[in-house]
Amino acid sequence: RRAVLLIHGLMGTPGQLYDIGQAFLQQGYLVRSVLLTGHGLTDAAPDQAHWQDWANLVDFACQTLTKAMGTFVILGYSC
User: Fold this and answer.
1) Would you state the pLDDT for residue 40?
2) How far apart are CA 53 and CA 21, in angstroms?
3) Nearest C-alpha neighbor of 7 from the set 46, 42, 20, 25
């Protein structure tokens, strides 16, 4: 089985990647996404997070998918 990790951009949320995730699901992928620290709360919240917080969260998601699937694809989107 195949897997994909979807990562939204600055000021975004995983919901912006819903349609892409559905397309991957229809192709048989296991789909996972993360809500980056400070996003999806208030407009000011991302200013209170650091890039290291985002990197650590993505690293954790990657480790989790590696244990579950072995290999996977990462898809990032930012507008």
Assistant:
1) 62
2) 24
3) 20
The CA-based dihedral angle spanning residues 30, 36, 42, 43, taken in that order and rounded to the nearest 10 degrees: -110
Q: How confident is the model at residue 46 (pLDDT cuts 50, 70, 90)?
A: low
Q: Looking at residue 41, what is its pLDDT?
A: 62
pLDDT tens digits, 5-19:
999 987 788 999 999
Burial pattern 26-43, b for ≥16 Cβ within 10 A else e, equals eeebebbbbebbbbeeee
Instruction: Specify the pTM.
Output: 0.84
Tokens of 10: 């600055």
Half-sphere exposure of 76 toward its Cβ, with a 13 Å CA cutoff? 7
Residues 6+ apart with CB under 8 A from 48: 38
Alpha carbon 28 to its chain centroid, in Å, reads 18
